[in-house]
Amino acid sequence: MSSVAENITRVLGELPTGVRLVAVSKFHPVEKLREAYAAGQRRFGESRVQELLAKEPQMPRDVEWHFIGHLQTNKVRQLIGKTSLIESVDSERLLDLIDKESERVGVVTRVLMQVHVAMEETKSGFLPDELLEYFRDRRFENLKATHICGVMGMASNTDDMQRVKRDFAAIADIYGKIREMTPDLRGFDTLSMGMSHDWRLAVAEGSNLVRIGTSIFGEREY
Ligand SMILES: *Cc1c(COP(=O)(O)O)cnc(C)c1O
Predict the structure, then answer these.
(1) What is the pLDDT at residue 36?
(2) 190-222: buried (b, 16+ CB within 10 Å) or exposed (e) per residue?
């Protein structure tokens, strides 16, 4: 089996310039994250608040933590100030709470809006029309301490590569429409799509941030 360092080198070697890598370290022990850090990786993705909070103090200060899981509203307070990017904002209620809490503690929180296009009902996110309406109505102008930096999405979990490609194209289309609608929204430049098994298709459809776990750290033990 190849090492974490070798895996990172291989993935980075395949990523086109301009596409950034989040090493998804959820369910993996801190030792593995340290191996990735030693290989130069600074951006890590976690999907559970408690796990991120447990790992954060054990890693160097310059790690950028991306939160990528469903964020429960009662966990927002603990997470604010710990992340470089919350990629998984899936409702306006959650966004407003993040904003309120960020303002209260005096930080600006960077987020992505998660959009739901996949077949699975279990996946979360804004529906495409809901998300477009949010930006068309310019409701982001009410935010005081939150910066929306782009869109995150997942393709359907299927072997049907045509479907996966269509899902990524749909997410990229929404991202493009928002950018057209709001040319004044500065720093709205991130399209996060693609995981271990489908990132090549995602990049082909315009992703500039991929979230890769298994191909770097191996299988997760839940
Ligand atoms: C776990 C997870 C990933 C990484 O998945 P791999 O298949 O291990 O690469 C990416 N994105 C999200 C939102 C995840 O929850």
Answers:
(1) 98
(2) bbbbbbeebbebbbebbbbbbbbbebbbeeeee
